[in-house]
Amino acid sequence: MNDLQPIALPGVDPRRPLVIAGPCSAETEEQVLDTARVLAAEGIRIYRAGLWKPRTKPGGFEGVGEKGIAWMQRVKRETGMYTATEVATRRHVEAALKGGIDLLWIGARTAANPFAMQEIADVLRGVDVPVLVKNPVSPDLELWIGAIERIHNAGIRRLGAIHRGFTSIDKSIYRNHPMWAIPIELHRRLPSLPIFCDPSHIGGKRELIAPLSQQAMDIGFDGLIVEAHCSPDCAWSDKAQQVTPDALAYILRNLVIREQTITTESLNELRAQIDKLDDQLLEILVRRMRVSRDIGQYKKEHDMPILQAQRYEELLARRAAQAVELGMDREFMRTVLQAIHEESVRQQMEVLGK
Ligand code: PEP
Ligand code: MN
């Protein structure tokens, strides 16, 4: 995917972060316009509002639908902001494009469904509109990449991803666990794809928007999509995670943006040290595996089974404790040792099989 074009919209400052803000849902014409006016005055250039809302259970507010397109057109006319909305079906895409919506995003539930993604991709063929694909609800990077590929295959080149966190059975302070390693891996796999962070849906509460946005900027995300509402506590959806436009402006003003990409001498020096240490690590691992094979040979000659569970448990506990004493994370050390042990067992099995 090295033919992507920047999301940059004419007149919008291309510097990081590109901010998209607006209510979770368009509710009334007044709410849409009131929120938009304050956001525009605060310098926001892209306005989001969900017209079609995918709700977990039936009976909730499912969005105003096509009626809201005229309100988005008013936002555009009166504030000069670009408009963005979520699309989940062919009809949504057709209505949004016909109504002049400038940017489309695909929600987490839709991104998890290849049939829905293909339907959207088919209707986007031949259209030039920026599209952002949220991560699917489950922590499945391949499914996320697959959804992005379908849109790319349809010819969309102004393409981006939105990280909105993942469903997890682990109890945590987040509504959707950030699992930062997944968007970081997405960036490694598709380096030219811009990635936005959605701190509202990750956090699920407004107090978490500032710290999550800062974390996203520290990692190097390209932009943010944040829910803002003129009266958050009265919002018809996602009220706990929406902030007023003023609060959002305050959060954005206080973000520390690290943009230095030129590497300095001292950074190069540190990287050289890392490379050298990695060489040594590799060399030690090779030596350790050779010893494992020798042990395998010994076990073979003495008819001993490979697994010596007690010794392995002792080794794991001892090294994990030692790691903590040396200021390292216990779980990290256990993960590393488990991986090494697995490979040792595999090597010994090879020896025994000969
Ligand atoms: C939204 O952006 O309001 C939304 C429904 O998000 P998600 O698809 O991430 O749940
Ligand atoms: Mn929402």
Q: What does it look like?
A:
By secondary structure, this protein is of the alpha/beta class. Helix content is 49%, strand content 10%. An eight-stranded parallel beta barrel has the order 1-2-3-4-5-6-7-8, surrounded by five helices. Helix 3 (90-98) links the parallel strand 3 and strand 4. Helix 11 (265-301) crosses helix 13. The two termini are 45 Å apart. The mean pLDDT is 95. Phosphoenolpyruvate (PEP) binds at residues 24, 50, 54, 86, 107-108, 134, 164, 201. Phosphoenolpyruvate binds at residues 24, 50, 54, 86, 107-108, 134, 164, 201. One of its GO terms (biological process) is chorismate metabolic process. Its EC number is 5.4.99.5. It holds the Pfam family CM_2. Keywords: Transferase.
Any descriptors?
354 residues; alpha/beta; 13 helices; elongated; binds phosphoenolpyruvate; binds manganese (II) ion; chorismate mutase activity; DAHP1/KDSA; CM_II_prokaryot; Class-I_DAHP_synthase
Distance between the termini: 45 Å
Question: Helicity, in percent?
Answer: 40-55%
Q: Provide a count of the helices.
A: 13
Q: Uncertain spans, ≥5 residues at pLDDT below 50?
A: none
Q: In what range is the share of β-strand residues?
A: 5-15%
Largest sheet: 8 strands, parallel, barrel
| Estimated radius of gyration | 25 Å
Bound molecules: phosphoenolpyruvate, manganese (II) ion
- Mean pLDDT metric: 95
What structural class should be given to the helix and strand makeup?
alpha/beta
Q: Using DSSP, what is the number of strands?
A: 8
Describe the oligomeric state of these chains in a short phrase: single chain
Shape: elongated
Q: What is the topology, as strand order, of the major beta sheet?
A: 1-2-3-4-5-6-7-8
H/E series, N to C?
Answer: EHEHEHEHHEHEHEHHEHHHH
